[in-house]
Write a structure and sequence with these properties.
This protein has five helices and six strands. It is of the alpha/beta class and 142 residues long. The chain has a single domain, classed as Flavodoxin domain (Rossmann fold, 3-Layer(aba) Sandwich), CATH 3.40.50. Strands 1, 2, 3, 4, 5 and 6 form a six-stranded mixed β-sheet that branches. Strand 2 and strand 3 form a beta hairpin.
């Protein structure tokens, strides 16, 4: 939907970020936070001066905790000067924890069609918001 370049934290270059109109920061949630490599990347980014960004994740628990999962990342991005224009989270399959591997993982079948539909709607709304601000469309997701 966004036609974004997908880049892992270790491959990010500051010029790529400065050239992007919208940057997504996201990962799976591990122990109630985004992946440590993503948080470390944000710590090392230069000031953003109001650059538009969004936060996303997949998680094991239900949506009751969704806002707390994004809190640390959103605070770090705000301190760097990013303008957070949205956030999205849905359940995701995980066999990350050894105990869950014994049972074949958790959240099998997630994200499901309904969650993917919500993600597409979220992306379309982001695209529309950014399009109203700028004529270029250079999106990046980390």
């Amino acid at each position: 939907m966004l036609d974004a370049r997908i880049i892992v934290p270790g491959e990010v270059r500051n010029n790529l970020i400065s050239e992007s109109d919208l940057i997504g920061f996201g990962s799976g949630i591990y122990f109630s936070k985004h992946d440590p490599s993503l948080l470390e990347l944000v710590d090392n980014l230069p000031k953003a001066n109001g650059k538009n960004a969004f936060v996303f994740s997949t998680r094991g628990r239900n949506s009751l905790f969704e806002n707390t999962y994004h809190k640390v990342l959103k605070e770090k991005l705000a301190m760097k000067g990013y303008n957070i224009i949205g956030q999205f989270s849905c359940r995701g399959f995980s066999d990350y924890y050894k105990i869950f591997k014994l049972f074949g993982g958790v959240n099998k079948g997630h994200p499901n069609d309904q969650e993917l539909g919500k993600a597409k709607t979220f992306a379309a709304n982001l695209k529309k918001a950014v399009s109203q601000e700028t004529q270029t469309h250079n999106y990046t997701s980390l």
